[in-house]
Every structure is written in C-alpha cells, then in structure tokens.
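ok trying again, last paste got cut off:
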Amino acid sequence: WAWQNFRLFAELAVSKPAKTARTLESTAMPSFDAVLEPNLVELKNAVDQTTKEIVTRFDFKGSSARIELAEKSATDREITLHADSDFQIAQVTDILINKLSKRGVDVRFLDFSAKIEKAGGDKVRQPVKVKTGIDSESAKKIQTLVKQSKLKVQAQIQGDAVRITGGKRDDLQAAIQMIKQAASDLPLSFNNFRD
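nice, full thing came through this time. structure:
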C-alpha cells in the first residue's frame, strides 16, 4: 500500500510541472518587435557601385572624389563622402542615393545632417551616419503613442527595439499601421512575430 501511494505521488509530481509549462505557453501573448535595421549587405553593395561609377565617370577624372564605408562597431557605421568641392559632394550623394534606391535600401537610414567639413587643402568631406537601432527618444515616442492609442496593446523598450504585445493579432496589425504613420521619418521594420 505504501509503495503504491509513493508511486502515485511520484507520478503526480512529475506530471504537474508539464501541465504548468503547457499552461504558461498558452498564456503567452502575441507580440512583435519594431526595429531599425538596414540591409547591410545591400548598403555595402550600393557603396561599392557608387565607387565604380565615380571611377568611370569623366567629370570625376583627376578629382579626389571617393566614398568610404567604415564599421566603427557592430552597430555603428559611417559613410564618408570625399570630394574637391561642395558641388562634387552633392554629385556623389546623388549617385549614392540612386544606387541605394536601386538596391532597395531606404535612404532614411542615412543621416546627412553633419556639415561638409574641410579635409586639408581644397578638399572637403561629409560624414554620413548609418542609422541602426531605434534611439531612446524615438523609442519613448513610440511607447507613448501606443499607450495613448485606444488599442489593447502595450509597448516595452528593449535595448534599441520596441516590443509590442497584445491579446489579438488584429490589434497588433492595427498597431503596426499606426506606428508606420506616426513614425514616417524612421524606416522601421517589424519582426519576431509570436502568436
């Protein structure tokens, strides 16, 4: 009798955690992550194609016009445009934008806000930051936007991404549309969908 009770107790103890795990899985809410991630392979290809065009174009012959892509860290990249004049920088910029759009890379990933600076002699350069990851200010705006919406979703900042969770897929899809419209200056993508 004691042996049977012990066996029964052992079976219950073993089967109970499995039930709890199944219950936790079923209560996980649908979610997705809003991220800012450029296609780095296509970005590099666009920079390489820009370099090839600069080398072959007659109006750049004998000039110092060139373009460089530097990887400062895993998430920090910068493109530097070099030229003889502000006008040439504008020409190199046009070529780069054209190559990016042909390769499907959103131009909004590039931050052209840095001023053109002197680079010794009569040469000039312009650093162009490649945006990767949602900055904290933009993440807070997205979080506030989600909180103020009438949708039954929640936003949580996770590093350089924003996780949106909700009870229904329809609410998540509505949240995506709302975020796209409100944050139109950011080329956001949405991934890590979980049901």
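cool. The CA atoms of residues 142 and 179 lie 7 Å apart. DSSP finds five helices and nine strands in the chain.
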